[in-house]
């Protein structure tokens, strides 16, 4: 049985935040986001370093021209998104493990930015979700702390 975005609670900003999922979950979450009236945005992290990731996010989310290429600028842009439609947003990060394995400090900073963004949107009673896909092995008991 498949679940809709409403059944999953994707429309509830109090539950929104940053979550680790498997690659196989991203398609379902994208459909569920649409069903909940949210905009889903897919970002492939394969082969990314920080500048490439920021560029992919800026392109995917259609950031305004002139947006800086640093964590502060990313945070500012994610907290706005007024140029996009929708009553909330879902970011679906493919192959997050590729980035995490090579750029652990930047990965941790990204998580902080995403969590702060979710809290900011939640304070405005709007859902903002980030789902980062990791391999199934990352969820095995004791593996990588997940």
Description:
The chain is of the alpha/beta class. The protein has one domain: Barstar-like (Barnase, Chain D, 2-Layer Sandwich), CATH 3.30.370.10. It contains six helices and four strands. Helix 4 packs parallel to helix 6 and helix 5 crosses helix 6 (104-123). Mean pLDDT is 89; it is low at 1-6 and 141-146.
Number of domains: 1
What amount of the residues lies in strands?
Answer: 15-25%
CATH level-3 fold name: Barnase, Chain D
Briefly note the structural class of the backbone. alpha/beta
Average pLDDT, rounded to a whole number, is 89
CATH class: Alpha Beta
How many angstroms does the end-to-end distance come to? 27 Å
Amount of helix: 40-55%
Low-confidence stretches: 1-6, 141-146
Extended strand count? 4
Strand order of the largest sheet: 1-4-3-2
Q: Measured on Cα atoms, how large is the radius of gyration? A: 15 Å
Q: How many helical stretches?
A: 6
What is the CATH-assigned architecture?
2-Layer Sandwich
So what's the overall shape?
globular
CATH H level, superfamily name: Barstar-like
List keywords for this structure.
about 150 residues; globular; alpha/beta; single chain; about 40% helix; disordered N terminus; Barnase, Chain D; 6 helices
What is this structure's SSE topology?
Blueprint: H1 5-8, E1 18-22, H2 25-35, E2 39-44, H3 50-60, H4 71-78, E3 89-94, H5 96-102, H6 104-123, E4 128-134
Parallel strand pairs: 1-4, 2-3, 3-4
Helix pairs in contact: 4-6, 5-6
């Amino acid at each position: 049985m498949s679940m809709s975005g409403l059944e999953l609670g994707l429309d509830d900003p109090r539950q929104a935040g940053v979550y680790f999922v498997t690659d196989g979950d991203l398609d379902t979450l994208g459909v569920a986001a649409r069903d909940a009236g949210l905009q889903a945005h897919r970002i492939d992290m394969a082969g990314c370093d920080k500048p490439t990731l920021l560029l992919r996010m800026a392109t995917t989310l259609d950031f305004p021209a002139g947006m800086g290429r640093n964590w502060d600028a990313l945070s500012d842009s994610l907290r706005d998104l007024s140029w996009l439609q929708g009553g909330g947003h879902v970011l679906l990060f493919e192959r997050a493990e590729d980035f995490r394995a090579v750029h652990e400090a930047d990965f941790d900073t990204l998580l902080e930015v995403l969590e702060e963004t979710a809290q900011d949107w939640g304070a405005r009673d709007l859902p903002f979700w980030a789902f980062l896909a990791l391999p199934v092995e990352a969820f095995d008991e004791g593996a990588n702390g997940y």
